[in-house]
Structures are given as structure tokens and as C-alpha cells.
Amino acid sequence: MTLKVENLSTHFFTREGVAKAVDGVSFEVGRGEILGLVGESGSGKSITGFSILGLVDPPGRVTGGKILFQGQDLVGRSPHEMRAIRGKRIAMIFQDPMMTLNPVLSIETQMVETVRAHDKVSKAEARARAVEALGLVGIPSPDERLAAYPHQFSGGMRQRVAIAIALLHRPELIIADEPTTALDVTIQSQILAVIQRLSTEFGMSLVWISHDLGVVAGLAQKVAVMYAGRIVETGTVDDVLDRPIHPYTIGLMRSVPANLDRGETLTPIPGMAPSPLKRPSGCPFRLRCFAATAACEAEPEAAAIDGHLYRCFNPQFERAA
């Protein structure tokens, strides 16, 4: 098992109160496996990824749970210990490469420094690894393009560079935080094909954070649906997306145009997701749920059917069937 997250909680301690951005999250990712972490904006997906990498800044901090990477708990590790892991064994691909690539440094400088930050190799060897990584992600003439600057690449090519940087050390785990959101569908398809090929080729595990169920359906083997800082349903792609049990997952599927017949009206989920500062008691989805009952005022426990996990007092088995 590459990654096992157990009851992870990450809270932000503000003047207005404690914001429970991640509140008891658990999931597993095997070697070479891709897990899609999906949900609305503000559900805690990105903070979960940042927590794994130790990138949560004050006033936020991990307040409980375990992050077992290759069997070793990352919670409580010193900044020095995390720097040795981050970028080398666990890499991250961010949503906007223009925010992560330094605009005043050439691609060569950024990639060579990334290699030499973890490995004591010559500049020539580091450069050779950078050329190889750019070639792996499909950038033509990689030796020449190293001299370019980020603004000289298109959006899709910049994202390929970001992926190449993440691959420089052949990490065991990559966390991708909505890396294709700003790209058109053609480039998005190319990036996803690159990710799938590299995951299979090198046996890398991925946590793919996204709100795009279509992307996750075509990329991941497992899906975890997140709402209000908690995972409400998880299982294989076929189980969760073809036979959703939790009302929230059903609501997400109803909001996807591809799931409807021509001319059929989309059915959005009513209301807004609750603020992490003011979560309702019991099931956090109950105020927006079409299946809510009085029982939902209590906290639902996790249940499972053939590995398909859910947290709900009123699971929609008939709809799933």
C-alpha cells in the first residue's frame, strides 16, 4: 500500500472560530493505482492533498489521524524530514502552472535545481534527466525547449512541464490538484493519456483531485466523494459513478450534462455547502438532501457493501440498482 490515510483532520484556528476543513478523512491508494478525490469547491479536497505533503500553513494544522506513506506516518515529521520526502518521493502537480513555475527563470534552471535539491549529481547529469523528463511528457525538441521561459509555452505545454518536474525523481506518489481544469478538452485528453501511460510504466500512485466526474471516470480506478471535509462515499469507479448510493453523489451525477437525454433539464443540488466554521450537527448534507429524515440529525457511521463504502442513514439502493 503506497498511501493509507486514517481519520485525518486538518483544522484552521481563526478569530471567528475553528474551521474544520478536513474532518476525519480515510482512504487508501495502492501501488500504481489512481484515486479520484471529487466534490464541490470547498469540500476539503485540496487541503487533504496539502496535508499529506505537509504544506498546511498557520493558522491551519493537522490535528489528528495518520498519513501512512509506505507504512511510515508523516504526521508530526519535522520540516527537514518532509523536505527530504516532498518532491523526491511524493510530488505534487498544481492547478495553474503559471503560479508554480518561476516566470523569470528558464525551464532548464528550474528543472536542474529540482534535481540537485535532492540528488548530488553534476549539472550535466541533472540536465540530461530534465531532457528525458520533458521527452516523457511529449514536449518536442526537449533539449532546445529547456532554454525557454514559462511564458514561451502554451497552457498545455506549461502543464506538461509541471508534470515533467514532478517526474524528475520517479516519485512513488503524485498528488494532482485539478491540473487540467484550465485546459481545453483536446489538450486535457492528451495530458490524461500521458498521466495514465506514466502511471502504468513506472508504477506510480496518484491522488487526482477534481470536480470533473468525466475526467475521473476515464482516469481513475477508485473514487472517493468528499463533502464538507468528510468522505461520504468511496469505491471503484464503476460502483460509485454507475451505481451511486449516497444522495450527494446522486446529486453530483444529476448535474453532469452527459448523463441526461437531449433536452432534459439539469437538476442542481439545492442550497450551498455549509461553511467549515458553522457545520450543521449530524449529517452535514442533510439540509440539502432529498432523502433526509429525522435520523439524519445524528452522525452517520460508515457502512459498506462489497467494498462500496458510504455514510448515510438513507442509502439509495433502488436508484443504484
TrEMBL record:
GO terms for molecular function: ATP binding; ATP hydrolysis activity. Residues 3-253 form the ABC transporter domain. One of its GO terms (biological process) is peptide transport. PROSITE patterns: ABC_TRANSPORTER_1, ABC_TRANSPORTER_2. Keywords: ATP-binding, Cell membrane, Membrane, Nucleotide-binding, Transport. InterPro entries: AAA+_ATPase, ABC_Ni/Peptide_Import, ABC_transporter-like_ATP-bd, ABC_transporter-like_CS, Oligopep_ABC_C, P-loop_NTPase. GO terms for cellular component: plasma membrane. It holds the Pfam family oligo_HPY. It is found in: Cell inner membrane. The keyword Cytoplasm does not apply. It is a peripheral membrane protein. NCBIfam families: oligo_HPY. Belongs to the ABC transporter superfamily. This is Peptide/nickel transport system ATP-binding protein. The lineage of its organism: Bacteria, Pseudomonadati, Pseudomonadota, Alphaproteobacteria, Hyphomicrobiales.
